[in-house]
Amino acid sequence: MASTTNSKQPQVNGELPCFKKFMMENKNKVTVVLGAQWGDEGKGKVVDLLAVNSDIVCRCQGGNNAGHTVVVDGKEFDFHLLPSGIINTKCISVIGNGVVIHIPGLFEELKKNELKGMQGWQDRLIVSDRAHIVFDLHQQADGLQEAEKGKNSLGTTKKGIGPTYSSKATRNGVRIGDLLGDFSVFEEKFRTLAAGYKRMFPALEVDIESELARYREYADRIRPLVKDTVAYLHREIKLGKKVLVEGANAAMLDIDFGTYPYVTSSNCSIGGVCTGLGLPPNVIGDVIGVVKAYTTRVGDGPFPTELHDETGKLLQERGHEVGVTTRRVRRCGWLDLVVVKYTAMVDYITLPGWDCKIEDVRQMENLPEQARQYVKTIEDFLQIPVKYIGVGQGRESIIRAE
């Protein structure tokens, strides 16, 4: 990342202005991991790898429409709302203000992974009081909206993410902090929200009294986990803690920069990190883009290199390409470097493949020549170095190319 120095930079009492001083004190403290295709690139594995050397790992946007898989000692952990780094017992995990949270789904996810061996999360998980709540009525509305669109449906996960962000934008959403405050205020907001959705979707069914009783219980369960995460992160960064941010979805699903309207409802490119955690851009250091050696996408939308033949089926089978959240078979195709570079306009490149197992390879020089050439072509085209190469599902199945 380039930087410039202005010799005419004004000073106050012989010191740099506060924002400049803050930037210098906190330079390169935050590392960000983002998907660079349509999701499912393996961000969870990268986050799990980097969490070993991190103090805090955060989710900044999206909801339980995301699916991240981490395989540890043969056990497969699936995360939807939780940061993938929560497996690391030395890490604090933060669900930031930009995330939308289905509270029943969060506790179900915690229970499932606890049964698989995840321990101590009660002391390591922090939830933002500013995060918006995904209610079951949002999920119903998601499905009803998709049904109304018919053949023009977007292929959403029907997890209520879009309707919840819509509620947030129209300022009738309900936040975690509302749930933990005066319950009568929460009740009023929920009744108003439900009435609005009933007007939009007469077929929508909401047992308001039952929902309110349920959320009284959830308020007590989630209360110990909730903090002002903005203040918390600023304080910890100032103390020198290493922060890792895990983006959900991927850049081509970003609501502003993706293949609109076949996108998600949040900014899953770098901008979502700042707004979703309350961090200024100048504390962000390395930004790591995760790319599959081929391309996949779940749901509808354009896919220029999609394969509808036996090769596409082979990629799906060998790559275990089934959506973690939806269990839908992922669409598969060749690596699309035009998508990865985004603004480039060139012809596609055909490269020789290799027909041997590489799951046990741990050194770059031990890869087949065709595989090394494949990586070099990607680096040359993008002018970005490849730092890590995943060759299998397990935590240990990583080649460090740096």
UniProtKB/TrEMBL annotation:
The coenzyme or cofactor needed here is:
Mg(2+)
Which molecular-function annotation in GO is an example for this chain? magnesium ion binding
Which EC number(s) does the record attach to this protein? 6.3.4.4
What are the binding positions for IMP in this chain?
A: 40-43, 65-68, 157, 171, 249, 264, 328
Q: Which GO terms describe its cellular component?
A: cytoplasm
What are the catalytic residues? 40 (proton acceptor), 68 (proton donor), 168
Q: Cite the entry's keywords alphabetically.
A: Cytoplasm, GTP-binding, Ligase, Magnesium, Metal-binding, Nucleotide-binding, Purine biosynthesis
Protein name in UniProt:
Adenylosuccinate synthetase
GO terms in the biological process aspect are: 'de novo' AMP biosynthetic process; IMP metabolic process
The record's subunit annotation is:
Homodimer.
Where is it located? Cytoplasm
Q: What species is this protein from?
A: Papilio xuthus (Asian swallowtail butterfly)
